[in-house]
Amino acid sequence: MAEEITVKEIDEVVVRFSGDSGDGMQLAGNMFSNISATEGNDISTFPDYPADIRAPQGSLTGVSGFQVHIGSGKVYTPGDKCDVLVAMNPAALKTQYKFCKPQSVIIIDTDSFTKRDLEKAQFQLENPFSELGIKNEVVEASITTMCKECLKDSGLDNKSILRTKNMFALGLVCWLFQRDVKIGEKILREKFAKKPEIAEANVQVLYAGYQFGANTHASVSMSYRVPSKNQKAHGRYMDINGNKATSYGLIAAAEKAGLQLYLGSYPITPATDILHELSKHKSLGVKTVQCEDEIAGCASAVGAAFAGALAVTSTSGPGVCLKSEAMNLAVIAELPLVIVNVQRGGPSTGLPTKSEQTDLLQALYGRNGESPMPVIAASSPTDCFDAAYTACKIALEHMTPVVLLTDAYIANGSAAWKLPDLNEYPSINPPYVTPEMASYWTPFLRNYETGVRYWAKPGTEGFMHRIGGLEKSSETGAISTEPENHHLMTQLRAEKVAKIADTLPLLEVEGEEDADLLIVGFGGTYGHLHSAMDILNAGGKKAALAHFRFINPLPKNTEEVLRKYKKIVVAEQNMGQFAGYLRMNIEGLHLHQFNQVKGQPFVVQELVDAFTKIMEE
Amino acid sequence: MSETKYTAADYKAGQPRWCPGCGDHAFLNSFHKALAEIGTAPKDIAVISGIGCSSRLPYYMNTYGMHTIHGRAAAIATGVKVANPQLTVWQISGDGDGLAIGGNHFIHAIRRNVDINIILLNNRIYGLTKGQYSPTSERGFVSKSSPYGTVEDPFRPAELCFGARGRFFARCAAVDGNPSVEVLKAAEKHKGTSVVEVLQNCVIFNDGTHNSIAKKEDRERNAIYLEHGKPMLFGPDKEFGLMQEGFGLKVVKLGENGITEKDILVHDAHCMDNTLQLKLALMEGPDFPIALGVIRDVEAPTYEQAVEDQIKEVSEKKKYHNFAELLDTNDTWEI
Fold it and tell me: ipTM score of the complex?
């Protein structure tokens, strides 16, 4: 074991932790990500959960994965494929091997590869590697045995000892990438502060895993180091996933607007974590009501908006189907409301834990009548914060419901996030009535410039009024079925939303200025599209990217920007909804399309191949 | 409130558009009167309704109000009350709005015990859509959508309310002014969800549905006005009363079989056990009088107050009270 081992410096690496649902792979992955971030790397992570809550142990459907991409520079995605695959059992190996490249290293726990384990994963042969045709370098470690040995004097029961296996794997991966394992120790001691004996056991096993790597060189030819060449701005950072960032954005907006935050919601994958997160923060005055159904979630939020709160409802596509009626009430009553749709695979119940962008047209048009509604799409886990903040600002300042689209991929994926300073965020100023307006105010009196009506909260003297789902007179606010009035009110509601564009930033283009291909996307695909563009440009091609956050209204320069390019490809995780929307808004625009609905994030290489083909056509 | 600062006129707005003779007119008058007697400032009242004839009511109120969407009034009213507990919240629904399309919201609002006052105007018909049977129409009821009679049993609103752990249930007849005012005042006074079933006629599509109690003399014979702590007597000369018999109730005549007033059951609206209260609420003719007045009125924690209490309690324990402090609760690193 005295051979010298080479430490090779690399720019980026992707590690995929996989194992049984109960093997703690999410924690191992998260810790590896946090350790790397603390050492100054950029990170992007993606958990890949099974849909079953407790699939049979060792079964193919029970495999849980967590992919971490760390880089010395900016990292945009969790990576297409992994450089290291940790497979804690045969089922993980079988289902996750597809994420390996020929040169990927695979780490397995040999103790979990008994005949019975192989049978559970439906292997036919005794050698799973030859059965799958795996020729990769494999690090075989008897992790279970070593954990037991390491903790034999700990006094812990067998079950608790087996629960530390993930830390052995993490220790080994930390050695492989020369990570500072002390950071992991610190995280564990904080996490298990209330159970010091569990903390101690995990720490011991973590070091044991690291030592195993160092002592045996893990039978690999070299270990790697991903140095920090980060150009990130100085400051404090944390790891945050999209749902948490969304929740934080809502909290920040409420504080900035000086309003109480109200969430009416109903549990639905993959949006439930927003309800979980917000329900924790009572000390910030946040009120969360877990309602009897999706309808009540949205309806109660409309009630809260009428009463004067910053009202939010969170859900996923199937929930939006049910909420659309109450969303429309907020349209006609012109009340501020934020509807968060964490998109998942559809139609119907579809693929609850997987990611798509198939609810775009639902957000834009999925209601009866002429029902204009602003739609914003967050582009990354950390962007969920800004997008949620902006959605609240628009809703409150323009007295309108706003749809915030995120998706399962960015909601569960995480990245390093520079802690924001709220002082640097724009103020939020709802158009409240003022006492002197009492003599002439009516519910649909509008600000001439913005077309926005004024907000009179119940409890305010002199502004008692009735609004509701029936069309109202533009002048008096009373029920009106007058033909001219309805036409006018329809126009006024549309103009109000259109005028929001005056307040929005212009569409920016990244990449080559005189690009031969403009890549267009929206929402959670930003990282993959940006990576694809970088690869194209690094290979001498000329590509640019226009990524949309604001979908309704579109940025004012949208047409001007798009008309500049000979070739445009709209890449989206649906069958062409955004492309169709752009064609509807910009006459005669010729667009290529790249559409994929597999429930998985885009694969960068597939994008590069498809875009190259379009450029060469 | 000792001094009355407002009159019924202070709560009036607009010109009701209901059919002449509709029970909604009479109820609206009682509602205005009750609010004046309660004396809450119009600015502090929110009247939330769903869809249906009776749900037009907010437009005739000089208060804050929202005429919302079909069936959702209870959910919307819940949001209003939780967001601003200072407001007095009334929910106006019909039998279709509250018990058919809105049945789920109805039972869950009651279960949560949000302090809202649910007025259920029950005319046993869909009036606004011109005459279909409702979830409170009797089996066999002939309507435009059941030309050969319905083949389903109706809900009895009290049963739903009690099944959802209702803490307040009262009943009045729309045309019966003063008792309606008293019931509404009691509903407002009760902390928690109050359900008031208003028996109401639809002159166009279901005329006479509550005929047995339509006139004063009918009510003397066919209804019983319940008062907490009073023996349950009824009849033109209070000659009839209610007694317990086995698991049920029976109607007895004073003086017959040696029965005196002392033998008559005394109404206990505050009894936590709702068994007898439910029996009272489910009484119907011809064998029993229909119960009017406050049938059940018991205390329980209200939802919105529990929300406020929890916020206060958690705020005292937690160390973060603004966004910047929230950020500090996370694991962070410096670059």
Answer: 0.97
